[in-house]
Specification:
three-stranded antiparallel beta sheet, Arc Repressor Mutant, subunit A, five-stranded mixed beta sheet, 13 strands, single chain, 20% strand
Length: 349
Amino acid sequence: MLEPVGDEDVAGVVRRLGAVLASDEGLAELAVRTRRSRSQRGEVAQALAEGHVIKVFAFRGATHYLAAEDGGAYLALRAAGRQWELPSWQQHYRLEPQDWPRFRETVRDALSDGPLTLAELGAAVTRTYRHLREVFDDGATTLIKPLMWQGDMRFGPPRAGRATFLRLDDNPHWAGIWDLDDAGPYAVASYVGAYGPTTRAQVHYWLGEGLSAGRKRLDAWLTGLADRLQAVEVEGETAYVLAEHVDELLAARPVHAVRLLPGHDQWVLGASTKDEHVVPPAYRTPVTRKGNLVIVGGRVSGTWAAAGGELRVTWFPQQARPPQEALEQEVSRLATLLDRPLRATIEIR
């Protein structure tokens, strides 16, 4: 949805991307808005409040926005490893596997009357589980994660700068945690559909390293999707696309569109920052460090930073510079998204 820019609503953008990193709200909103032909400030927060998207711990233990309709597929993969049953978890939290159903029910009951801050949730839960008081005093992040993976809770709207939590099943748009046999093939096909041509290694990167889905499971799902996937060759490397996309792919022509993307955008995270087709190896460091990205024809060609009315573009010296008119048009579009005039200056490093 970068060329041409799409017309999906917020949830549609998130669903298409699979997930949007939510650790920086400003970057997350810009990632969504830059993919919409019409957008407005605060629309991601509104979609969260209305339940069209949910905010949970998901990929790589970080907070992400997921679409409420299919978020349960990704959480099913994340929960499949059942980390809360590991001996280290049992020893640290003094919760045996058979204790979890009652513990989860206690958490859901505590959240039944509306959003609670962590301190409020901890006060309610530790009336029964007193030994967890120190855990909640320390932040309880690791303990909360599997409760989200299993569909018990989600982040709510912040209150006075503090995170709050809500039940997930009180969201009318929430479709629940998917059956793993349905979730796996759906997640693989969605990833290939969004980021293809993609390699098996990239599928393992996104769903294996990202969600701990398990190598054997992923290989089995890939094998089961053989009739939906088409092998293609990309510069001598075998990759896969959805069979339904082959004709469109073969008919595609190169474009040189310029896009100014926020740091940690899905364009680079989805394929991984190690994908040399997208990220030149020599310039991977600023990409992984949340630098705002200048994309030309799909390839990272520089970074940008806005301060006041000035937009400073730092160009990677080995990358071809885009047409000045294309860059000016994208700067104008970014100025509209940021709601302030911008004047661009370019430097080459």
